[in-house]
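Contributing new records

If you add data, match the layout below exactly. Sequence lines come first and carry their own label; structure lines follow with theirs. Keep one chain per record. Anything else will be rejected by the validation script.
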Amino acid sequence: MKVKKNFLEKDYFNRIKSAVVNNETFPFYFKPAVAGESDKKTLKQFYFAHVVYDNHQVNSETFHLLLPLLEKMDVKALIRIKVNLYSRTDELLKHYSHVDDNFKHKGMILSLNTCNGGTTIDKKFVQSIENQALFFDPSTKHHSTNCTDQQARWNININYF
């Protein structure tokens, strides 16, 4: 696991943030479970997502905006790109632990805002800080949280080789 603060050039990061967070028409879609079937048993384990790339195909015009990010990360092959939105609640919700896939690969979570939410990997909590990149192996058990101190927690999750 590696954390890089101020990962992107400020102007480029602000373009991404404006396109996603500050854009009232950016489409997010309801997902009834954060970490798979097991968390559908509670009404609190949900989020909103925008799938940019999955199953070997581009699903969103946002893909072109993210190309310089993928170049900076030296991505050889993409598995998935997803923009996540976790809504605020009165208490911090720890989502269920999960793996993204059962094979070793690379993952990066780019935080689009600073909040008290974050991601826990191997019992280490990494708080969401604007323009911070968290690199890790998503085949390692991990879990996300929402937040309590902002309207929402926004991030971009990329799985790749």
